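[User] Once you have settled down, look closely at the record that follows, and write a paragraph about the fold.
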Amino acid sequence: MAAVVVAAEAEAEAEAPGEGPELRDHRMTPMTEAEVRAFMIAGSRTGKLATVRADGRPHVASIWFDFDPETGDAVFMTWHTSVKARNMRGDPRVSILVDDEEMPFAWARLDGIASFSEEDRVHWATFTCRRYVGEERAAEFGARNGVDGELVVRVTPTAITGRSNISG
């Protein structure tokens, strides 16, 4: 796994004393990279993938994803002509956000660079959907979603950040 910037540290270094996240986030608890990764794949939380359209407008789409245990990349599937695929071909910089909508609330974000592959589609389709549909239906969904035209998307992280205990 490549080293990534834990964004909370980078943000703190970029701000003058008395203006940093310690004042804004007085109740929030910063997450470590390991905590962010664990939070993002806990249960069946979906990711919200943010991309940029060719005209500069943002696009956000819900995705099923997981982390490749060997590389640490976030992995998900998309159709080759989808808005997501088109946007990432034009600008591979993306963000994936996951949040917990229950008290005390939390969020985690991974920023990274997307790349595409058509190799091992069924494997990755099965792998990414397993935590959403369960082991008993993973092969069924993997076969359905691992077809010609589907792309395996890998997001290599460049920054990771998260906050828990938002409501204090």
